[in-house]
Fold this sequence. Notes:
It is a single chain. The protein has 273 residues and is α/β, with parallel strands linked by helices. It has helices at 22-33, 45-57, 72-85, 116-144, 155-158, 165-189, 209-212, 221-228, 242-249, and strands spanning 13-17, 37-42, 62-66, 91-94, 147-152, 193-200, 260-263. It has nine helices and seven strands; from the N terminus they run βαβαβαβαβααβαααβ. Helix 1 packs parallel to helix 2 (45-57), helix 3 (72-85) runs parallel beside helix 4 and helix 4 packs parallel to helix 6 (165-189). Bound molecules: nicotinamide-adenine-dinucleotide. Residues 17-18, 20-24, 42-43, 68-70, 95-98, 125, 129, 152, 154, 200, 202-203, 205, 207-208 line the site of nicotinamide-adenine-dinucleotide.
Amino acid sequence: MKYPPLFSLEGKTAVITGGSGVLGRIMALAMAEAGARVAVLGRSKEKLQAVVKEIEEAGSEGLALAADVTETTQLKEVHAQLLQVFGTPDILVNAAGGNISGATIGPNQSILELSEADLRKVVELNYIGTVLPTQVFGQSMMKRKKGNIINISSLAAQRPLTRVMGYASSKAAIDNYTKWLAVELAQKYGEEMRVNAIAPGFFLTEQNRTLLTEEDGSLSARGKQIIDHTPFGRFGNPEDLSGTLIWLCSDASRFVTGTIIPVDGGFNAYSGV
Ligand SMILES: NC(=O)c1ccc[n+]([C@@H]2O[C@H](COP(=O)([O-])OP(=O)(O)OC[C@H]3O[C@@H](n4cnc5c(N)ncnc54)[C@H](O)[C@@H]3O)[C@@H](O)[C@H]2O)c1
């Protein structure tokens, strides 16, 4: 057995939104390795099926759920599919999200030039796209009074970063929602309904590669600023999230709810001095 019993996800069903994304895929595989059946949710069936194949190669069962996290009707359809194939979910990881470039303020711009349309899009994707899956997949959890929700926030929520205004505010809303929902579900359904969040630091992915590095792979000015502010002196590898995720998903964290755990090489703790 790869995981000691306290950390094992054997017999559990997990759903992860954004499950074919850079971090989502690694988190899906980590849960599969810990023993969970994993349903990966995203918009491209083809990409999801590739992850399902990897989950099966890791010795577990996978399921591709094609849906948009901002569309309740689509979420309800795939929830019904999940109930038929795997049954009630035990774990929901809300990993779909990301920045929308128009919701950032460039170095020569001001808040007055922020695109209202792109601000709405970034809030819709990150915040609404987290709340709706918790309603749809949470429904069957609440019925059973048992379920574990993990939201993927960002350290930009607690320490607003320059430029990425819309993204940082929408992730801050997720932190607040995580705490609110943890209290709400514990009070109404008891201690087997838990809600926590992970706040990843900087992970070099396709979304931010051009922001953090130059074409030759060296650090951009912003990339250097970040590394200088990270006590570990490096960007995260997606696998750095796995241990924290499995701990939060498993009984090892059974008295933990309403927390936001930074996985950031110390960025959040460092004052810069
Ligand atoms: N990469 C980082 O450094 C970093 C840091 C902090 C937080 N995060 C957060 O981690 C999560 C995963 O990020 P990532 O770096 O893997 O990004 P990614 O773009 O690789 O993955 C995001 C996934 O979400 C999917 N998605 C986007 N919109 C969707 C929608 N409307 N419906 C369904 N699926 C949708 C995308 O197709 C993609 O598969 C995001 O919430 C992101 O904000 C990332």
